[in-house]
Hints:
The strands form 3 sheets. Strands 4-5-6-7-8-9-10-11 form an 8-stranded parallel beta barrel, surrounded by 8 helices. The chain has helices at 9-19, 22-29, 36-43, 91-101, 116-122, 137-149, 168-173, 183-190, 193-201, 224-231, 238-248, 260-268, 290-301, 316-325, 334-366; strands spanning 48-50, 65-67, 70-72, 76-81, 106-108, 127-131, 154-158, 251-257, 273-276, 306-310, 329-332, 379-381. By secondary structure, the chain is α/β, with parallel strands linked by helices. The protein binds flavin mononucleotide (FMN). Flavin mononucleotide (FMN) binds next to helix 2, strand 4 and helix 15.
Amino acid sequence: MRLQDCHNFNDFRLLxxxxxxxxxxxxxxxxxxxxxxxxxxTASFDDVDLIPNVLRGVADVDLSVEIFGQKIDMPLYCSPTxxxxxxxxxxxxxxxxxxxxFGTMFGVSALATVSVEEIxxxxxxxxxxxxxxxxxxxxxxxxxxxxxxAGFDVLALTVDTITGGNRERDxxxxxxxxxxxxxxxxxxxxxxxxxxxxYLTKEKFSLPHLDKYVAEGTNTATSIGSYFxxxxxxxxxxxxxxxxxxxxxxxxxxxxxxxxxxxxxAVDIGCTxxxxxxxxxxxxxxxxxxxxxxxxxxxxxxxxxxxxxxxGIQRGSHVLKALSVGAKACAGGRLYLNALAAAGxxxxxxxxxxxxxxxxxxxxxxxxxxxxxLGPHNLRxx
Length: 382
Ligand SMILES: Cc1cc2nc3c(=O)[nH]c(=O)nc-3n(C[C@H](O)[C@H](O)[C@H](O)COP(=O)(O)O)c2cc1C
């Protein structure tokens, strides 16, 4: 199987599985507990159907939308995800370049392996910095100041990782960051020699936003669960979020909002957007899918801030359904991460290109030329 053979999400997933050592693949592919929420995130899109109109002259379709005061050329952007250089040696550089080429936004994680300064040199496009609220306030100030100085357009505070989700696949494979080559795990790395050679011979792994502040340095192998549980401030509350929002002074979003109450509070503290998300099913298993919860949230706050629907998106039609409910745009992680692991920048470009083509084709088949024409009128629940 080669990149040219990848035509959809599952093809990229299979190629990623072939290329990555099992602990790394399962870190991307896995979720919390029984992974019920993870499954539902995608399955929820199947409970509604699109109703097309015909004979409407659809030769020229405009896929652009405006979010956080920025125009993006397609209504789907790359969610911030951690540790990308473990998936491919180009890591965030590959994703930043691909997102820029497609005129869409790139979210850079606080746990990125390439610095905000370097990303802003690579990418002139719209950029989001994903912020974790650490106990160490010096680290928080440093992250915010660096993202601001690097010209990032949006700060997204992740609010659904107050403690680590129970990712049983990571427990089984012993996944840590950076990878720990123990006797048990070394075999899974040896089985993928191309990955291992790249990992060992290319630039040394680091977490440039954290490394000056983490006492042990970021070379100490740690699980993501223990990072959330030990380094993040579990007392984070609405006052903290409000303070961060005003300190940032620009477009500010809460990432991981699922209740109407919280969506309304986000408006009250001055957020300009919310990302309706359950962290790709990686945190609270048994929680609702973003698409299932979207309508309630859009009805409550959709005219007051930008509502983004994130999680489980694998098809252009999923994006059309979320936009029809009232999301301003969609975002996804695994939809580009598998492609990054499969083939680096060309992989991410192919994934974004296929999704853009699907969105455009589906818009034409729906009889629409502008995203703003989509609405609840063209959806029916089964
Ligand atoms: C491998 C991986 C790493 C992630 N790292 C982060 C992160 O560092 N910060 C964050 O806010 N969300 C992180 N997420 C969650 C994504 O931003 C996003 O919410 C999720 O991937 C959406 O679900 P999807 O993968 O089904 O599209 C991560 C997700 C994955 C799959």
